[in-house]
Amino acid sequence: MATASKYDQIADDVLKAVGGESNVKSVTHCATRLRFQLNDRSKADKDAVEATRGVITVVEAGGQFQVVIGSTVANVYESLTSRASVTAEGGASGGLLARAIDLITSIFTPFLWVLAGAGLLKALLAVVVKADPAFATTSTYAIWFAAADALFQFLPILLAITSAKRFKANQFTSVAIAAALIYSATIAVIPNAEGASVTLQAYASGGQQLTFLGVPVIMVSYLSAVIPTILAVYAQSQLERLLNKVFPEALRNFFTPLFTLAIIVPVTFLVIGPISDWVGSGLSSGVNWFWGLSPIIGGAIMGAFWQVFVIFGVHWGFVPVMVQDLSTQGYSLLTGPLFAAVLAQAGAIFAVFLKTKNRDLKGVAGPAAISAFLAGITEPGIYGVTLRLKKPFIYACIGGAVGGAIAASGGSAAEGFVLPGAITLTSTMNIGNFTLQLVGTGLAIAIAFVLTMTLGFKDVPNKGQEAPAAGAAGGAVPSEALALGAPVAGEIVPLSAVPDKVFSSGAMGDGLAVIPSEGKAYAPASGVLVTVMPHAFGIRTDTGLEVLVHVGLDTVELGGKFFTSKVTQGDRVESGQLLTEFDIAGIKAAGFNPMTVLIVTNRGAASAVVPVAEGQVRPQELVLDLVG
Questions:
Q1: CATH number for the domain harbouring residue 605
Q2: For the residues of 281-337, what is the DSSP string, one character each?
Q3: Rounded Cα–Cα distance for residues 374 and 610 (Å)
Q4: What CA–CA distance (Å, rounded) separates 120 from 127?
Q5: Within a domain: residue 472?
Q6: 146: alpha, beta or left? (left if phi > 0; alpha if psi -120 to 50)
Q7: pLDDT: is 490 or 54 the higher one?
Q8: Domain that holds residue 367
Q9: 122 falls within a domain
């Protein structure tokens, strides 16, 4: 009961912070993230979501508001979707790529973990057979292998269920369609030339002409079929909508599935299946062709950028190709370099754990290194450690590139769908050169670890720890305990004269404004960026001071146009560091005021904020005094 209430609490807090149930258009999840489609993004408080206990970070990509939870995401998702008004699935907004990725994730993620678990079981069996080849001839092995392999052979059944949910089709009819496809390769139903009963696939493979109403059928294998199943269920969903309009309610319950099965199954055999097989085989052949030209380059690209793909959710675009490869040839060359990419991150995370002096960061890095190394779950480590510090993430990408190139050069690939990790490395034992896989992966870990330990990173100070002194962009260097510098060059304007009641009333805090003469905004003090928007930056200093630099009035409506941010949320900035560049003329031409506001939203220990400058100022010239 206590565990359930914990996930309920996280779900409640996240739901409230994203704007409530009414603001959630739909939600789904992947291995570590809740993926929200929001009705109104402005109603979501990103800082509040990230401050929620149990939330690692928030990422906005692919038209989604993604809340990174970690390995317990499924529990939080289940709690979220128990709300009557929260829709579990939905189409993504944005471009074609965003919608395609959203489609793939919504279909594959519900059974991702059981797919990974079955793949891990196959990998462990491979180790046992290597150690004792005779074990492969036992019935014990056969039963365990059936447990591990059945899911991949009968994958269309799972795809039918999730696709039906996505396309809003009848799930049981979808399963019947997928079962018919599998039936063609597993159940003897037609006599061959010798009179023996064989499967439809065996009948066609034996050289006899398979037809439907006189039309020749090009029979392909539907075991493990991905694309044919998804397209067949989509066609089913469209036909069902039409039939439900045609048939009266009294006949609809049995006439709709009757006609759907009678039409969609033959159409799949005649059209959808052959076309899908051609497309899938083309994608697989394309990957193999590219690998044939230069496996080293292919491996280096996948090793270097796989974790970047994960950050933006683009990695899901590779899943259908991998599954297609697995179904046609038993392995996918795309998977070989991924072990180096993933485990290099683990090496960098562990180095941060050893090197950082920050207690909180060390507490995140330790468990994250273990989950990344053993299970291949890197999101907690990426968002909580390496990407936050930047340099360790880059070091890991370098290690992944080198290791991925070595692994790919030996033709290494995984048998089965597995999450790349130390445990599942055994899935690559039988494909390509396993020694090169081990060398590449080990070198990737070593490179990421050594670079992080030797070249280092800018550590996160413990709370209350003094920040190092920093130079300014111009003028005197302010002490953040006593004064703040001008965020932009230009003419000082009293806060009361700002044509925006929220600022001029002092409701958000005391400060001043500057009419900018140059399109560059700088940090008025050293600290951590707790808010980063294209036009606004919130800084929390080490002394507890909280400062907001807001470039332009109502410029949030520009959606980032005319702004080029130079920092990201969570960064540590030093006084005088460039925050953003902006186009003053463009902002004015769009009908907005570029006046830049500097306010102290939390004075900390100071009793008052006093403006100390007027007229023209340079960036970082002292403009606000904090009275103790």
A1: 2.70.70.10
A2: HHHHHHHHHHHHH-HHHHHHHHHHHHHHHHHHTGGGGGHHHHHHHHHHHS-BGGGTT
A3: 55
A4: 11
A5: no
A6: alpha
A7: 490
A8: 294-455
A9: no
Rg of the Cα atoms in the chain: 29
267-300 pLDDT per residue, tens: 999 999 888 878 766 766 777 787 878 899 989 9
Give yes or no: residues 300 and 444 share one domain: yes
- 338-357 tens-digit pLDDT: 999 999 999 999 999 999 88
Whether residue 25 has pLDDT greater than 90: no
Q: Does residue 106 form part of some domain?
A: no
**In sequence order, what are the residues at sequence separation of 6 or more whose Cβ sits closer than 8 angstroms to the Cβ of residue 416?**
118, 119, 122, 123, 148, 152, 326, 427
At residue 35, the 3 state secondary structure works out as: strand
Active-site residues: which are they? Answer: 30
Partners of 549 in the beta sheet? Answer: 537, 598
Question: Is the model more confident about 218 or about 63?
Answer: 218
- Cα(378)–Cα(70) distance, integer angstroms: 9
395-404: average pLDDT: 95
Specify the number of domains making up the chain. Answer: 4
pTM, to two decimals: 0.51
CATH number of the domain enclosing 37: 3.30.1360.60
In terms of domains, do 287 and 412 share one?
A: no
In the chain, what percentage of residues exceed pLDDT 90?
28
**What three-state secondary structure class fits 442?**
helix
pLDDT at 6 over 50: yes
Of 20, 39, 36, the C-alpha closest to 28 is: 36
- Surface-to-core class of residue 95, CB atoms within 10 Å of its CB (0-12 exposed, 13-18 middle, 19+ buried): exposed
